[in-house]
Design brief:
single chain, mainly beta, seven-stranded mixed sheet, four-stranded antiparallel sheet, 11 strands, 0% helix
Length: 128
């Protein structure tokens, strides 16, 4: 069993930066790690994912070039560096983990239901 705990959220002005951290209680080096976000009244969406070794990443177009996902398997930690934040980035941000079961992490579906472990979320609010 893996427990995930996110931190680093907060309130910033547009154009600002935040760094989110997701710390796992267990071994995650064999798991795909992803970041999701959910804005009020909207579906939870995956916008970034990183492979088990960290060598491959995939981003949604809405964050490409502004957000960077990374991981440190020795620390069982995943990071999300968010730059040039926009008001539309306001959401609850969740870390999620999935055993790839032979698939490439970047090829995993963005469907919420296939992810095995979730954190409790951290709120990010961007004001204009």
């Amino acid at each position: 069993q893996v427990q995930l705990v996110e931190s680093g959220g907060g309130s910033v002005q547009a154009g600002g930066s935040l760094r989110l951290t997701c710390v796992a209680s267990g071994y995650i080096s064999n798991k795909c790690m992803a970041w999701f976000r959910q804005a009020p009244g909207k579906e939870r969406e995956r916008f970034a994912i990183i492979s088990t070794g960290g060598g491959s990443t995939n981003y949604d177009d809405s964050v490409k070039g502004r957000f960077t996902i990374s991981r440190d398997n020795a620390k069982n930690t995943v990071y999300l560096q968010m730059n040039s934040l926009k008001p539309e980035d306001t959401a609850m941000y969740y870390c999620a983990a999935k055993n790839p079961q032979g698939l490439a992490c970047v090829d995993l579906a963005k469907v919420v239901s296939i992810y095995d472990y979730w954190g409790q979320g951290t709120q990010v609010t961007v004001s204009s």
